[in-house]
Amino acid sequence: MNVRRQLTLAANSLHWRGFLKVYILRVIMHTYRTHTCGELRREHVGKTVRLSGWLHRKRDHGGLLFVDLRDNFGITQIVLLPENPHFKTLERLRVESVVSVTGDVVARDADTINTGLPTGEVEMHVADMDVQSEAAELPLPVFGEPDYPEDIRLKYRYLDLRRETLHNNILLRSKIISSIRRRMIEQDFTEFQTPILTASSPEGARDFLVPSRIHPGQFYALPQAPQQFKQLIMVSGFDKYFQIAPCFRDEDSRADRSPGEFYQLDMEMSFCTQEDVFNAIEPVLHGVFDEFAGDRVVPKEPFARIPFAEAMLKYGTDKPDLRIPFEICDVSDLVSREDVTLGVFKKIVSGGGVVRAIPAPGTGDQARSFFDKMDSWAKKEMQAPGLGYMRFVDDDGQLTATGPIAKFFSTEALTALAERAGIKAGDGLFFSAGKEGDTVKLAGAARSKIGADLNLIDENIFRFCWIIDFPMFEWNEDEKRVDFSHNPFSMPQGGMEALLEKDPLEILAYQYDIVCNGVELSSGAIRNHRAEVMLKAFEIAGYGADVVEDKFGGMLNAFRYGAPPHGGIAPGIDRIVMLLAGVENIREVILFPMNQQAQDLMMQAPNTVSDAQLKELHIRVVEPPK
Fold first, then answer.
1. Quick one: angle between helices 545-559 and 227-235, nearest 10?
2. Dihedral sign, CA of 477, 478, 482, 486?
C-alpha cells in the first residue's frame, strides 16, 4: 500500500489530533494545495484538503470566524473556532493576505448553503494554517468592487485585476484568443510572427520611434500593423497567414481604442477574391461570438453587405448599428416641391446642400420637451444649427403633422414624407440640413441618440455587416489635394485603367470593413500586387516615385519578382472582447492598459532616462517652450 495512503489511514483511524496529525498532513500533502478554491463539492465531504489563496472577506459570527478564501478558480468558505491556535492570527490579518490552510471538508447546514457559489454546499474547518504573505492597508478595495477613480485602479492594477468582473474579463479574453487561433488553424491558416522593429511609414497614424544605438541618427519604428510584412509573406509563396499581432500607434485614446498598443487578428490569403476573404472570416467571427455570447443572439444569416455610399445615406456613418430599427432617408427632392414653402430648406438644396430625415418611431405623443432637447443637443454637442422636426398625427383618417415646420408642408407633401421615411401617425420625424458632410454626420449621430433614448436598441443581439466599395481617394480640404481615403495598398476597382481614365474621387477600391453593433472591428482589402499600379495610385495621392521607392521599396521590389493576387483583413481583438464582455471601455478588457493620456501609472511610463543612455543613443532632449 502507498506510504502516503497508510499514513492518512493511520491518522484517521486513530483519530490523531494536534501536532502529530498536522505534521503527517504536511509531509504527505502538496506544499500549497490539494484543490483549488473553486473545486470543492459535496462529494469531497469528509476529506482532509489543503487550499491556498487570498483572504477575500472575513466575518465574525458569535465567536466563529468565517473567511472567504479566493484564488483564480473561485471561493471557498473556511471556518475557525476561537480555540483554534490560528484564530487570532487570521482575525488579525488584513483581507488580501495570502494563506495556506489545511482542514476537513464539512457539509453546510441546509439553511446556510450559499447557492450563489459553486462551492456553497461545503466549507472547510481549518486545522492548520501558514501565512504566505501579509497584506498592507489596501489603496483599492477588492471585495464588492465599488466604483473607484480610474487613476487609482490603473496605478494598482494588480489589485484591480483581483476584482471578479475584471478578472473574468481577462480570462474571457484568453479564451476568445484561443478560440480564434483554433478556428484559423482549422481553416489551414499558418501562424507566423512578423518583426516588431521596422521602418517608419508615411501613412496612417503617428509612429512610435526607436532610436538606433549602432546607427546614430537613425530610427526604427514600432509597426502600426504588419501590413507590408503580411503582403511579403504572400509574395514569399505562403498561402494563408495569420497571427494575433501587436500593433503600435501614437494616437489619442477613446473609449473603444487603447492609446499606444492594441492587438488584432491579422490574416492574409493568396489567390483570393474579396468573396474568399468574406467566406474565410465570417465563420471565425460568427463562431467566436456564438461560443461566448451566453444568452445573447448571433443570427445565423450571412453578414449584411452595405456599400459605403448606401451606409452614409441610410445610417449617417460607415459604422452602422443595425440594431436600430429605422433608417435615414434623403428628402432633398421632396422639400424642393412647389407645395413646400420652407425657404431655408429650398435654399440649402439649391445651393448644393442636402436634407435628410431621421424617423423617431412612437414619439407622436411625446411632450414637446423631447423634441426641444434633441434640437438643443444638436446645437450644443454637434455644433449644428439644430434639428427641425414634426410629429405625425391622424386627423379623422387624414395623415397630418404638427410642429414648428409642419405648416410649410401641404397634406400631399406630408404624405410623401411619411412614405419615404417609412413612418405613420404617432411617429416623429427630424430633419438635418446643410452641406452633405455635416448633414450626414448630424443625421447619423441623431439616429444613434434617438435609438438609445427611446430604448429601441436590442442589447441581446449581435448584428454584423460588411461595409464595401469604399472610395479609393478623398479630397483633403486642409491641404487642398487628393489623398487616400482608406488603405493605400488596396487594389482599385478597374485596376490601372481606372487610375488612368476616371476622376480619382469616383474610383472605388476593393476595401471593406466589418462592423458589429456600431463598432468597427476591422478594415481589410484586396491588395495592390502590381508595382506599376501601386506607383500610379501613390502618384495620384501626391507621392512621387522616389518617395514610394524610399518608404516602400522592400514591398515594391518584391512585386517586381512575381506577386500573387492577395488580400486580407485584421479584426481587432480588444474590440471583439469588449463586445462579448458587454463593457463600453476598452481598458476593461486589457490586462495592463495605459490611461487616456497614454501613461502607464503602475510602471510610471513614459519616464525620463539617464544622460548616459541618451549619450549612448546620440540623442539630446530639447524641452518644449514653456
1. 40
2. negative
What 3-state DSSP class applies to 290?
A: helix
The alpha carbon of residue 77 and the mean position of all alpha carbons in its chain are separated, in whole angstroms, by: 36
Radius of gyration over alpha carbons of the chain, in Å? 32
Question: pLDDT (tens digit, 9 = 90+) per residue, 96-150?
Answer: 999 999 999 999 999 999 999 999 999 999 999 999 999 999 999 999 999 999 9
Using alpha carbons, list the distances in angstroms from residue 78 to 16, 86, 136, 176: 21, 12, 22, 33
3-class DSSP state for residue 623? coil
- Which residues, 6 or more positions from 90, have their beta carbon under 8 angstroms from its beta carbon? 55, 58, 65, 67, 80, 99, 126, 129
Complete DSSP assignment for 212-270 = -SSSTT-EEE--S-SHHHHHHHHHTT--EEEEEEEEEEB---BTTB-SEEEEEEEEEEE
3-state secondary structure of 537: helix
Phi, psi of 280 (to 5 degrees): -80, -40
- Is-contact 499 536, C-beta < 8 A? yes
Q: What is the pLDDT of residue 478?
A: 87
What is this structure's pTM?
0.91
Q: What is the DSSP string of 326-375?
A: ---EE-HHHHTSTTB--HHHHHHHHTT-EEEEEEETT-TTS-HHHHHHHH
Q: What's the mean per-residue pLDDT of the chain?
A: 93
* pLDDT (0 to 100) of residue 20: 53
Region of 422 on the Ramachandran plot (φ > 0 left; ψ -120 to 50 alpha; else beta): left
Q: Could you report the per-residue pLDDT of 63-72, keeping only the tens digit for each?
A: 899 999 999 9
Phi, psi torsion values for 112, nearest 5 degrees? -115, 5
